[in-house]
Every structure is written in structure tokens, then in C-alpha cells.
Amino acid sequence: MKSTPTPAFDPVLDSTPHPNSDIGTSRDAIGLGQVVGEGLNTLHGTILSLEHISVSFDGFKALNDLHLYIGVGELRCIIGPNGAGKTTLMDVITGKTRPSHGTAWFGETLDLTKMSEVQIAQAGIGRKFQKPTVFEALSVFENLELAQKTDKSVWASLRAKLNGEQRDRIDEVLETIRLTSSMSRPAGLLSHGQKQFLEIGMLLVQDPQLLLLDEPVAGMTDAETEFTAELFKSLAGKHSLMVVEHDMGFVGTIADHVTVLHQGSVLAEGSLEEVQADERVIEVYLGR
Amino acid sequence: MNQPLMVTAAQRAGTKVTICVGVVILAVLIALPLMSLLPESNSLQVSAYTLTLVGKILCYAIVALALDLVWGYAGLLSLGHGLFFALGGYAMGMYLMREASGDSLPAFMTFLSWTELPWYWVGTEHFLWAMCLVVLAPGLLALVFGFFAFRSRIKGVYFSIMTQALTFAGMLLFFRNETGFGGNNGFTNFRSILGFSITSQGTRAVLFLLTVVLLVGSLFVGWRLARSKFGRVLTAVRDAENRLMFCGYDPRGFKLFVWVLSAVLCGLAGALYVPQVGIINPSEMSPTNSIEAAVWVALGGRGTLIGPLLGAGLVNGMKSWFTVAFPEYWLFFLGALFIVVTLYLPKGVIGLIKKRGEQ
Description:
The complex is a heterodimer of chains A (288) and B (359). Chain A contains eleven helices and ten strands. With 288 residues, chain A is of the alpha/beta class. Chain B is mainly α. In chain B, 73% of the residues lie in helices and 1% in strands. In chain B, a hairpin with a 2-residue loop joins strand 1 (192-193) and strand 2 (196-197).
């Protein structure tokens, strides 16, 4: 699956583009009409490769020899009973938790286990938390302004001014997440569902290559859930998505590929019908 | 943008009133030193005592503003800002002591029968080098402390306790005669600054005006910061630091920048405080002083620029009256004030005024 890794380059320091030299192959490999962003080598069509990942907290194995590959432009759903290690998996990918074992590659060249949370975020992995986390004292517009993809150093922030293009992009995203009419309200005053959308909007303006979404439709109405499903489906292809969700109906609507986690490792993988028919999955997950 | 017109109108009126009040206060602050130059027979003459008292309160107001930048905006409660203030004051004091002693050693060193200046006193007879020290001493200390504290992700109450310990350690160090800063007596008996007598009315008036300039300057810097994207990132650090990191910002740099800026402002305030008040000693570093500064900010309203200035003015105004009228009860009153503000005025006096304005 994986070739010998070339040394990791720092995407922050190294701004010269590294165009994917073999986009055609990767497109064929995964069968989706995706576009790969600059600076990320996805020669083999995988944007994320986790191998032999183990994490233990005081002897408890939250993740146990986990293997997971996510293709470029793929929309992957991760399901599993409580305590299966779904959130820990996201923590490992975003650098919040260091695995005690194993390798985590973003593209072919970036070793996530050696990068800080900030570096990982700048390299192009965005994350939505389980509990919606927005900057409550700032307005909806300002939340998006901060999240927007741009130079995020101290000096740049001191002099930063939004240009027309950036403003248009924020307006566009406000429209998409249906918060245009609340753009100057403090984010703390939004409803739970609106905060969820705002956080998704923040991911959109951040323009990451890989989006990690932890229970994105929790607390949403049916209409909102349906709308989110549409939104995610439209994102897949342009971005790669990894969605952790309990809502089976939602998973059924969006996923072309489902991974079932159990006790820290992958139990089954395939389409939703396939995993639902799997005896072991029925045993541990559906509780029969 | 989508607020009802009434609210916007009220806000605009509020801004106008604020600007008017600000201009009046500024005019009074500029008039005060000029009025102090009038002959004593004139009924409008302002006494040296009043001028010094107001000048002192203005220095405290700068400290309050500096503390608010780190506490109100970035959410880092420092209980050690008195240390930065005192370091700036000591740097200025070194120059004043050298100016007072001329070619010989400062008086306290002769008492200790020292024969030569310690190395860190070298060059302090030059005003410009002393001014560099005013900025460098608090700035470098803040840089080193902040670098390690923010790298280790020390936050909240742990950060407060460490800053408190830092200022306490500073006080103990400066209390020692061997440290070379005059022990518990500190520096006093200043004579002149740049050749001008330090007690003359003219010098006092100029020092007062410089304090006003520094205050207005700090206010401008604070205003620019608060309105910039940098200010919004600080607010984000305060409210959801984790989210900010996953947005791709490194909070350490932002915290360090505002932390050092705040320390330097405190140092400058201390440097203007010392020649006006005429003494600097280690009690300026005592933890209670730094805690008092936090009370000013909380009372005035943190996270606003005017609030801390109001708080510093109110508390110190009350203090100078209280300590004359009921000297024993001041600290009880201060404690009660802090409790009342925390319980009933979470947004401080400014919050109260804004609420009235909206009604």
C-alpha cells in the first residue's frame, strides 16, 4: 500500500507548490473525480494512512493496532459503540494525543505523529468537535474571519485586513450555512443547531483537505440533518471527509464507505449494507 | 448591521457622549499642570500635593490598562504586574540616584562601604541608557517568563499563582541589601532629572503631562489592538483556545506578544511614577499591590478599554480619602468592594453604565 516515505517537509516554511505528479493514477485508484490541493503528495490515492496505531491511557487500550486508509475525496463514516475509540482516533489524527505505537501519514509525506496540533491544522486537516465549539464573544462573521485560510502568524494578524475576495467567500459560506441574517450576532447567542452549522462553516472557510467531523448532526432537527447530508455530499470529491456519527439514518444517506470500530480496532469495513449484514458487527454493535 | 435602528442610534449617542466626556477629562488633565504653575495667591492654583496625587493615579491607570490587555482580552489573570511596574521604577530610580550623587557612589552604597559600582549599574548615569533599561528590564523578564509559561501551557489559576510568586520573589530579592538596590529603603532623596530640579513646579508639570501622553498613547495602542484581527484572536484565546489551535493559530505567539507589551507599558508607568512620587522601594512589588491592580480592572470592567481607567481612578480616589478618614478600615473596604463587584457587577462599572444607557 505504501512506498518508502520521503522526508517530511514543513508546509509552513516550504511554500513552493508540490503538485501531485500523478493525479490521474490517484483518481483512478479511488474512482472519484477529486482535485488534490497543492503541497500534498497523494500519489497512491490515499490522503490518510494510519498503520499499527495504538494508544493506551494508564494501561487501558483506547486504540489497539488500528489500520485505516482514507482515499482522496472520499466520504468515510466511522461508527461503533461507545468507548470504541472514535474520538481518540480523531485526537491522534489532529495531534492532540500521541500514539504510543504506529504511524500516521497525511498524504505520502507528512508524518502526523511528529507534528504539533497547529502544524497539522495548517497542513490542511480541519476538525469539528463533538460539542460545538465556537468563539462565543465574537460575532458569527468574526468567527468565520478568524477561521479563514490565510497567514495566521502574529504579525500578519496585527496588520490583517479582509480583501474583497475573502469577504465574498465568507458571505458565500454564510449563505451556505444559512446564517446570513445572524452574521453580526455574538456566536454565544446562537441555538445549538446554529452553532453546529457555524462550526461547519468555520471548517469550510478554513478550506482543509481533510475534514474530521465528530457527531455533526447531534442536536439538529430532521430538516437540518437532511440539509447537512446534502452539504457533506457536495463537499466530498473536493475534500476528503471523515464523519463519526451515531445516527444510522444519517450515515445511510451520506456514506459510500463505513468503518466499524470496536475496542480500539477496525472490526469491519465496507458499504453500510455490508457491515450491517456482518455477523460480528451485529453481535457487538447492534447488541443482538 | 442587522440590529434594530433604535439600538444603533442609542450606541451612536453613547459613542458621542463617551467622546465628549473623554475630551472634557483630557482638557482637565492638560489644564491641571498649567494651573499648578500659577502663583499661590491665585485661587485657581493647584497644589503640588494634588498634582502628585493625580499623576500617581494616572500611572496606576496605565497599569490597569496594561493588565486589562492580558486579563480582559487574552484571559490571563496576572497577579504580578506590580513587579513590572517596580522594575521600570527602579530603572528610572537608578538614573535619579546617579544624578543625585554626582561622581561619587549613591549614598546607600557608601553606607554599605562599597567601593565600586556593581556591573549592572554601569551606564545608568546616562538618561538614555536608563530609558532603555526601563523598557528592557520588564520586557525581557516578561519575555522569558512568558515563553516558558506559555510553552508549558500554564493557564488559569496556575498562571495567576506563578505570577504572584514571581513578584513575591522579586520583592524578597530587592529587600536584600546585597542585591544593590538600596534594600528595604529603596531609592529616595532624588534631586534632579536631566539637570532640572525634581521638586520644581515646572518639572512636576512636565512629568505630569508626559504621564498624560503615555496614558493617551497606551489607550490608542490598546484601541488599535482591540479593533485588529489580533484583538479578536486574543478573545478567541480566552474563550476557546483549543478551537483556535485547530483553526491553525499558534496561541503562544499571540499571548507572548500581548504579555510583553503589557509588561513594557507597566515599566513605563513605573518610570514616570518614581520621579513624581519621589521614592521607590520593594513594597511596590508586594503581592497586595498587584492584587489591587486586578481589583481596579474588575471594578471598572474588564475587556473594555475605558473600564480599567475608571476603576483605577475610582479605587485610588476612594483610597486617598478613606486612608485619611478611616485608615484602619481601608483593606476591609477594598475586600468588600471586590466581593460586591464579583457578585453583582460581573462587567464592572462600565457594564452598569452601558445597561443604563440601553434602558
